[in-house]
Amino acid sequence: MSIGMGVTGSYAGLVVCRVGLGLFEAGFLPGSLYLISMYYKRHELQRRFSIFYCTAILSGSFSGLFAYALANMAGVGGYNGWRWIFIIEGLGTVVLAAITKFLIQDWPETASFLTLEERALAIRRVHEDMAGAAMDNLDMKSRRRIFLDWKIWIGAMIYLGCANNGYGVAFFTPTILEQLGWTSIQAQVYSIPIYAASAVVTVATAFLSDRLRHRYLFCMIGICVNSAGYIILLAQNGLPVVVRYIAVYLIIIGGYVSQPLTLVWLNNNLGGHHKKGIGAALQIGLGNLGGVIASNIYISSQAPTFPVGFGTSLALEWLTAVGCTVFFLGLILENRKRERGERDHRYNLPKAEQDNLGDDHPRFRFVY
């Protein structure tokens, strides 16, 4: 699809390729989270997923510089520079996809890099950590349990604010950096330390979160750091440009700390193959509407102060904070109900239904 965007000769072809690209890449992030979660216990997952997620953070640090270099290919083969950006990046993806086809494994049950004993151990560890919660049969009752689960919809709301921040920084970061007197290429270079620092802090936070077996406070810390950056930029008139540069650090670091945490936190609290897979797709699919918001709030005529953009993004961050708090309190209350035996009536369900309850099983305990 990316290569097609580079070679198409019409606007209609460009739109078709872009829609196709969105359709084909939509399952990548939720599918990756789902697959990784099949191999690790809940408090082993955050650091693994955050390391994976850091590839996206680091690619963001070099993508602008890479695109700038490719734009200098204007005229080669009769194509404009922007076309070569899509063609080269598309070709690179095709090559990597062909290689990883033989490297990426499916489930622990069939993983070729594990022995039979290791496969059995991996399956048993995850099964015990989830208190035996399973949802392997996607029948009408399990569908209702999935689509009527408040956790998934709160998770989508939480991620919406994070996604808005993730997409939004691409709009204003170059403007802030160019205010320091740098050229466009220098601004791209000086954005690299911001993303590198974000990757380090994100992974360090993930290790702490797993070590302390806690998610909520780390999400809130990220939101507060991010909010401090937005508040500085909303009050930027009269502030030295270097302070605005520090604000960009705070926004990007805080945003990337909380974003992978919110994804893993919901995954930790969903039981069963089907519920984990559908839950991740709904959270990320609906949450990515934050990208639609981000693309419409940074109005070019308002540069460099972007009051609408920064104000809306700050509000959405605190929508995420409210969602995290509701999620946190809801999980605590539900665990207490289970401790008091208020969900034990589910033991009276038919055996087949009990074995397909997912996280609704009375033995399952939520993590926060």
Strand content: under 5%
Structural class by sheet pairing and helices: mainly alpha
- What is the gyration radius calculated from CA atoms? 22 Å
Element pattern in H and E: HHHHHHHHHHHHHHH
Any idea what the shape is?
globular
The largest pleated sheet is described as:
none
Spans of at least 5 consecutive residues with low confidence: none
Number of strands: 0
- What's the oligomerization state? single chain
The separation of the N and C termini measures 40 Å
- Helix content class: over 70%
Mean pLDDT across every amino acid position: 89
> Count the helices. How many?
15
Describe the structure.
By secondary structure, this protein is mostly helical. Helices cover 73% and strands 0% of the residues. The protein has helices at residues 2-7, 11-25, 28-37, 42-71, 81-100, 116-129, 140-147, 150-178, 184-212, 216-234, 241-268, 273-287, 289-297, 307-339, 351-354.
